[in-house]
Amino acid sequence: MSAQIASLSGRILTPAGWLLGRVEFDERVLRILPDAAAPSERIILPGFVDLHVHGGAGVDIMQGGDTAVQVARAHARHGTTSMLGTTMTASPASIEHALDGLADAMTERVAGTARILGVHLEGPFISEKRLGAQPNLVCSATLAQVLHYHAIAPIKVLTLAPELSGHLALIPQLRELGIRVQIGHSAGSYEDGVAALDAGVAGFTHLFNGMTPLNHYQPGIVGAALAHAEYAELIPDLQHVHPGAMRVALRAIPRLFCVTDATAATGMPDGEYSLGTQTVLKCLGCVRLASGSLAGSALTMDQALRNLLSIGVDLAAASHCLSRNPADYLGLPERGRIAPGAWADLVVLDAELQVQAVAIEGELLSTLNTKTQGPPA
Question: Which terms are listed as keywords in the entry (predicted)?
Answer without folding.
Answer: Carbohydrate metabolism, Hydrolase, Metal-binding
